[in-house]
Each structure stands twice: as C-alpha cells, then as structure tokens.
Specification:
Number of helices: 3
CATH superfamily of the domain at 62-131: Flavocytochrome C3, Chain A
Order of helices and strands: HEHHE
Shape: extended
Structural class: mainly alpha
Strand content: under 5%
Radius of gyration: 24 Å
CATH architecture of the domain at 62-131: Orthogonal Bundle
Largest sheet: 2 strands, antiparallel
CATH topology of the domain at 62-131: Flavocytochrome C3, Chain A, domain 2
CATH class of the domain at 62-131: Mainly Alpha
Length: 146
C-alpha cells in the first residue's frame, strides 16, 4: 500500500514539474512585462459609429450597435434600448425596430412585449471599437447579409 501511494505521489509531482518547465515557453499578451509590475495604461478606444449599421458577417449574426451604450440601463423592469428600438417608438426615433424573433417564446408563441429570453440586449448586441486585434484572426465571411 505504501509503495503504491509513493508511486502515485511521484507521478503527480512529475506532472507538476513537467507542466512548470513547459509553461516557460508560453507567451503573454502583456509582452515581457513581469506580472508584479504595474500594467501600462492603454489608450481609450474610439467607438466606431456607423450610419445605417454594420454589415453582418454571417447569416444569423446579431446586429452590432453603431452607437454608445455605456449609459443605457437594463434591469428586470427597464430596458434603455427600447426607448428608441421598441415597437412603439422606433418610427419616431428613426431607429431599427427590435427583431420579430425577440417577441417569441421558446415555443414560438407571439408575445405583446419583448421575451424575457431576449430582454438583455447587450448579451448579443455590442458596440464596436476601433482597435488593433490582440491576436491574428483568419475568419472569412460566409453568407453576408445586412
């Protein structure tokens, strides 16, 4: 029993040693900065504002937000997005209306109000910033639509 236990401890320790040695080859997005030093302050990103909205890069992509949303409040009772994009207000505000799919239950029953499953807009819809990507991206667009 003791020999088996010693063997198991030896195997576990060898995994930690091998893992620690190979972890030295991992590159960080922080660059060569030591983790104990203060991070370099980054420039505030500029919001990309696009009149008419962003082009979608795949068929079912949620539309990206072409304006600031930091001050919008979304809670269980209130949704700041609906002030402009709601079914009753979008025409007056000259904004796109909330998609019809947002008024359906998971059983495809039509609701009078936005479904609770679609209430928190920023879970899917996000503003875009003018930034250089941190890592390379080889994504190729398929089936573009507006």
């Amino acid at each position: 029993m003791k020999k088996t236990m010693h063997a198991m401890v030896g195997v576990v320790l060898s995994f930690f040693v091998v893992g620690a040695v190979s972890a030295g080859d991992v590159a960080s997005l922080r660059g060569a900065s030591d983790l104990t030093t203060k991070a370099v302050k980054t420039k505030k990103a500029k919001l990309e504002k696009v009149s008419g909205g962003f082009e979608r890069t795949w068929a079912e992509q949620p539309p990206m937000v072409p304006h600031e949303v930091d001050k919008y409040r979304i809670s269980i009772k209130n949704n700041g997005c609906l002030k402009c994009h709601g079914a009753k207000t979008y025409e007056k505000e000259k904004s796109p209306k909330v998609g019809d799919s947002h008024f359906l239950t998971r059983d495809d029953k039509r609701l009078e109000k936005v479904s609770s499953r679609r209430w928190f807009c920023t879970q899917c819809h996000a503003p875009q910033m003018s930034l250089t990507p941190l890592v390379s991206n080889t994504f190729e667009t398929v089936g573009r639509s507006k």
